[in-house]
Amino acid sequence: MDMKEAMYTRHTVRKYTDQAIPVEIVTLMNQRIDENNRKYNLNIKLVTDDTSAFGVVAKLILAKGIKNYLVLAGPPNKDIDEKLGYCSADLMLYAQTLGLNTWYVGGTYNRKSISKKAGEGRVIGVVAIGYGATQGVPHKSKMPSKVSSYEGDMPDWFKNGIEAALLAPTALNKQAFYITGKGNKVKIICDNGIFTGVDLGIIKYHFELGAGIENFEWVTDF
To answer: What's one Pfam family here (predicted)?
Structure first.
């Protein structure tokens, strides 16, 4: 399975089995994490065999069997949320190619415990990771016309990018973004409250994967 295939098969999974992640898979995940950390100056960590990411209530209502997770952290700056969102998308899809399931969690994790795991820096969330009790189901999506427009004849790469963006996990599944295209230039607007930066990073990663980064460039205005 490659990253594009993973994009279509990855769904949110909140319940996990007791199956441990093999050492060789942990090694591969850590290598991918290190690449992202070096490239974007982040401090993402993979924590294994630890059940402290969620409180008692969350474990009873939302999460089951989660004992492996990514801590999404990095030095505080104006675009840290977007960087962490972008890299979390990469890591979730990479995990899917390795046969793992994931769940991005932006608000219901144990902040005190996770802050200790992260050390210094800003924490924007965690990603539960492991072998799911199920493979999850596709989330409800808006129509492409509700989240995008293109000036002139819409090229296939733009259509593919929008399709990929709609597959991206967003906070509360709001899909509160709008992408416009003109020639080879693409602009994105996202407004999802405190989750805007993270959603922006995740959506950008998916759009790039679907459209092909070689086909366009991001702009802030036309």
So the answer is: TM1586_NiRdase
Which contacts of 185-194 are long-range, i.e. CB under 8 A and separated by 24 or more positions?
185/216, 185/217, 185/218, 185/219, 185/222, 186/158, 186/161, 186/211, 186/216, 186/217, 186/218, 186/219, 187/218, 187/219, 187/220, 187/221, 187/222, 188/218
How would you write the pLDDT of the chain (222 residues) with one tens digit per residue?
Answer: 999 999 999 999 999 999 999 999 999 999 999 999 999 999 999 999 999 888 765 665 677 899 999 999 999 988 999 999 999 999 999 999 999 999 999 878 888 888 888 887 899 999 999 999 999 998 889 999 999 999 999 999 999 999 999 999 998 889 999 999 999 999 999 999 999 999 999 999 999 999 999 999 999 998
DSSP annotation string for 160-203: HHHHHHTTS--GGG---EEEEEETTEEEEEE--GGGHHHHHHHH
* Architecture of domain 144-217 in this structure: 3-Layer(aba) Sandwich (3.40)
Domain 3-130 has CATH 3.40.109.10: yes
**Boundaries of CATH 3.40.109.10 in the chain?**
3-130
